[in-house]
Amino acid sequence: MTAGEIAAPAQGSLRLRFMLAILLWVMLGIGGIWFSATRLFAAHVEQSYHEELEVHVRELSRLVVLDEGGRPQLSRPLSDPRYDEPLSGFYWQVTASGQPSLRSQSMTRGRLDESVAHAGQIAHRVENGPTGPTITYGMLRQAPDGRDIHLVIATDQSELDRVISSFTQELTMWLVTLGLMLLATGIAIIGFGLQPLDRLGGAIGRLRRGEAQHLEGRYPREIAPLVTDLNAYIRQNGEMVDRARVQASNLAHSLRTPLAVIMDEAERLGQNPTTAPSGQALLEQANAMQQQVGYQLARARFSAGVRKQGMVSHPLRVLEPILRAMHRLHPDREFAIDHDECGDGSIAADPVDLAELLSIVLDNAGKWSRSRVSVAMNCDGQGGFDIRISDDGPGMTDDQITRACEIGTRFDPNSPGSGLGLAIAREIADGMGAQFELLRGNPGLVVRFARSAAQV
Ligand SMILES: Nc1ncnc2c1ncn2[C@@H]1O[C@H](COP(=O)(O)OP(=O)(O)O)[C@@H](O)[C@H]1O
Ligand SMILES: [Mg+2]
Fold this sequence. Notes:
Elements: H1 14-63, E1 64-66, E2 72-74, E3 90-96, E4 102-103, E5 123-129, E6 132-142, E7 148-156, H2 157-208, H3 224-271, H4 276-301, E8 312-313, H5 315-329, E9 334-340, E10 347-348, H6 351-368, E11 372-379, E12 385-391, H7 398-403, H8 421-432, E13 435-440, E14 445-451
Helix pairs in contact: 1-2, 3-4, 5-6, 6-8
């Protein structure tokens, strides 16, 4: 990312949003099913339970006979065997007024309240029975002699609760399994749905790292127009940069000849004592113009601060021919790559720009070093790199370091040069979104040119 680009901070995550929506939806759906199913089932079970017990009350009523003494007797046991099992939770009791009650064999202790049996209609309520709370049914019947017979049947409430709770437990287990399965498929669907966006992210990453010239791949209808537009934009951008380069270089070239003529004239004027001051002033201004022209021409050779996408350089392959040239230019200096962690790796940069920058810095180092110039290269494999060029020359003071990259700055007017080298080098680095720093070495100067993977 170059200095001028604005990094849009990511806000939230699409994946997370979809997940939360699905989680909410599944929880609401499953919760709703659980609530209504348990309610319905309980109502249904209670209903059939009541109907069954009312049948028992009627059966009891049919079986009751009064013996000669007016005591109630059953003509045969009730058909449900649970009334004979001690403390089974199923009890009955028959009371004829003025007589002791007759009770089921299951009722080995306690008694039932016969007040529930107060009408010809079956009534029911919850009472305390021999083995905890019971649902008690009662009915009043008239004996042939006109006496009241109270018929009471009671079953433990826990019996009904047990049926309902075992259903609820099983239902809960199934619904939790269903919920988990729905969530799992939801997550799979999200992954599947967002796959094109992941692919697009990968394609943009390859473009940034210089492994591709445009966004590759086929995308669904919803994002294909975006990819097409982006590709068109990238192509236009590249064409614009090329055009700008050509125009800048044309302009600079067209100014060169007139400038040379003006400088010639200025020199002639300088030789004449009467016009010497104006000749001198003209020459100074023409020199400044020539510097600018040189600078613009150099800029036109690289991307002029506009980064083109999809360019890759192999630092080592770019560096080697430059080092050979430096050996010829400065035969009495040693140039060495002391540290290389880039190997055959590549970085996203225009090789022409990279070569220009390295040549400028290595030429300076060759010019100013005492005997040796060394290069150290590090790459992180994700597009980040750090290249340092060190020499054993006089180096620069802090004050010189701050001014060295300005156009036309030179600290030793006796040595040949234009004072443009470092200005151009820094401009190239800016265009790549890389850092360009001068550091004080021990001895000499270290030039650091680096970009972190995050800036790619
Ligand atoms: N490696 C170096 N060691 C010491 N001084 C340097 C080094 N590189 C550059 N300089 C100083 O910085 C000035 C600007 O460098 P540059 O922009 O390349 O212009 P030029 O090389 O044309 O003079 C040089 O004139 C020189 O004084
Ligand atoms: Mg130079």
